[in-house]
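Exercise 7. Predict the structure of Hydroxyacid dehydrogenase from Niveispirillum cyanobacteriorum.
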Amino acid sequence: MSTDLLSALADLIGPAHVLTGTDMAPYAFDWRQREESHPVAVLRPGSTAEVAAIVRLCAEARVPIVPQGGNTGLVGGTIAEKGTGAVLLNLGRLNRIRTLDATDYTMIAEAGCVLADIQAAAQAADRYFPLSLGAEGTCMLGGNLSSNAGGILTLRYGNARDLVLGLEVVLPDGRVWNGLRTLRKDNSGYDLKHLFLGAEGTLGIITAASVKLFPRPRQVETALVAVPSPAAAVALLGLARTGTGDSLSAFELMPRFAFDGSREILGRDQDPLSAPSPWYVLLEASSGMAGPALRGQVEAVLETALDQGLVTDAIFADSMEQQRKLWLIRESLPEIGRKIGGAVHTDVSVPVSRIPDFLAATIAAVTAYMPGIRPYPFGHAGDGNIHFNIGRPVDMEGAAYLAHAHAISDIVHEQVLAHGGSISAEHGIGNHKAEELARIKNPVELDLMRKMKAMLDPDGIMNPGKVLVR
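Solution. The predicted structure, encoded as tokens:
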């Protein structure tokens, strides 16, 4: 980057917000601290107008731009590749909630708003924003929308894109598209917002969004349920959706590894049921109405499932603290994976009905590839999203095991495709899966994606190397 351009950027947003050298360190690694970013500068604009002006300057100079939010992504989507001369555009200063309309059940928030702050603002207005992720105390709205984040409540409320009514986007030429509508029905032509939701900053930079709010739950019932198999879990899901009037909001599948790993690796004894089970479900149902009805519905579902042999034991949370402890079991699994000292992580989805067959086939396939390997698949079974993670054999060093990471991921992905699934359920493509996407994507879909990219970003300056490979 030329010194003239750096000087122009400093004049535009202030020298304190143009970082170079060692000042870039806090922004220069991915969340897992495995991949280093190499921008020539980190830019921290404070408004949509400043983002647009930066993009215009960079477009004129053909300088690539990598947008970044809370930097909690897991697929290298905010990495500036070495030698590309890219700037990293961090949106953390765009952190205002512009409007909240409790009557319309809508909010307009900027891209740098931390997800937990959006949730808190909705709650203060007696409303509910249901996007919920493990990283919600750090991740930002723009990144959530750019990656079409999922999370634990997708079963009830949908992915991030399902919560969006409108967007404000800075286009690759520096123009601003103001599509911040709050209408529930608008059939006036192409729905342009869906071009940018899930596009990972490759078509433009989301600077604000209008999102849907919901009634705040007055009653939440959380239960930990022991099941004999994934097939039993899927059957329980059907019973629970019908038996609660589709009030089920979360349905998480976990292997026994969640409990044994918590005790052996994290030093936590968090096994509240009377006997071990090979599989567990953490389910949650919620209602906007107070009263005992929902507990009775869930109890009736579990009694039926017990009679049918789908459930062997269960426990309800009777307080918010007990709810927190039950969710801690599920939330411990990523931490266990990090502390194993070598684990292959995948984020995939299959049709819910095919989860049992997929798990059986994939466990058999990776075990055949490397005896002693420790699969611990878990995740959002209610919507078909499985994090099929695989720990190293106990007698194998982490580095030696991770040398097989690509081959093991390929085995998982082969089974995903064989079972009608997707190689990315909620984490996106980034630079980690771009080549794989090019290999497996339907040629017509791939051609349409490339044509949209060429039309909107003909110079290829928006987050190069992500989603689509050249």
